[in-house]
Amino acid sequence: MPYTILAPYYDLLGWADFTDFLWPHIESFLSTFGEPEKLLDIACGTGVLAERLTALGIDYHGIDINADMIAVARRKKYSSAATFSLGDMRSFDLGAEYPVCGCFYDSINHITDETGVEAAFRQAYRHTSSGGFYLFDVNTIHGLSDWKPFHSFRKGKFYIKQYGEYDRKSRLGLYRVEAFVKNTAGRVIYIEQTLPERGYTVTFLKRSLAATGFRRILIKPFRRFETVAEAERLLFICRK
Ligand SMILES: C[S@@+](CC[C@H](N)C(=O)[O-])C[C@H]1O[C@@H](n2cnc3c(N)ncnc32)[C@H](O)[C@@H]1O
């Protein structure tokens, strides 16, 4: 399963840094609409966002499809309540509603068919309280088309190689990560993980969100100088 091999090294290899990039958008949202009492983070991964939100006193619930990612998240210390559950964003049912649901860092792109994305929107809607918000980001078709075929870098003690492949016709991409890391026994090992991503048009995403029942949909480019049409990554803020 995607992320199983990567899970113990996810934060160390630099994936946790995405939250630094996301955080100004979350802060801006919280300062505009106020801090919710509780928040559901769908596809929460290793709980990077939990560390920041629980520090604000927000009750945090994270769900993810990958048991290894959840295991890493559960091992961390949090300043206030953090709960983690195993679940598929297309079908989970916690039997609860949250004033804010989030889904970040390409997690929607990891669903590789439109029916799956529609199902994920339905489950998010179901778990959002009336008047509440669903926030998510996506890598755009433009962003995925610009993936570098090869990129290598060092992160602390680790050496990482990334290969990106994107097919414009099917809008399917494969992102391969290779790294040399130290395992728990202190031995240097080679790991490899391939992660699939699919690009979705803004028209499809907006239409599906509206069909699900979200009333207002605000779409923001992640970087200030980009337009929605040119952006590599977009943030969707939807109101139920
Ligand atoms: C790039 S990680 C993002 C994790 C976290 N949101 C973050 O910002 O670090 C993508 C996550 O999506 C999860 N994921 C992929 N498909 C999923 C699904 N159908 N349901 C729930 N989680 C899913 C993966 O297991 C992985 O943890």
What topology does this entry show?
Blueprint: H1 18-33, E1 38-42, H2 48-55, E2 59-64, H3 67-75, E3 82-86, E4 98-103, H4 114-127, E5 128-139, H5 141-145, E6 150-155, E7 158-167, E8 172-182, E9 188-198, H6 202-212, E10 216-221, E11 233-239
Parallel strand pairs: 1-2, 1-4, 2-3, 4-5
Antiparallel strand pairs: 5-11, 6-7, 7-8, 8-9, 10-11
Helix pairs in contact: 4-6
The protein binds S-adenosylmethionine (SAM).
S-adenosylmethionine binds at residues 3, 15, 18-19, 43-45, 48, 64-66, 69, 88-90, 104-107, 110-111.
What does this structure look like?
The chain is α/β, with parallel strands linked by helices. The protein folds into two domains: 7-141 and 200-239, Vaccinia Virus protein VP39 (Rossmann fold, 3-Layer(aba) Sandwich), CATH 3.40.50.150; 143-198, S-adenosyl-L-methionine-dependent methyltransferases (N-terminal domain of TfIIb, Single Sheet). It contains six helices and eleven strands. The strands form two sheets. The chain has a seven-stranded mixed beta sheet with strand order 3-2-1-4-5-11-10, sandwiched between helices. Strand 6 (150-155) and strand 7 form a beta hairpin. Helix 4 crosses helix 6. The chain is globular, with a radius of gyration of 17 Å. The two termini are 32 Å apart. The mean pLDDT is 96. S-adenosylmethionine binds next to helix 1. Residues 3, 15, 18-19, 43-45, 48, 64-66, 69, 88-90, 104-107, 110-111 line the site of S-adenosylmethionine (SAM).
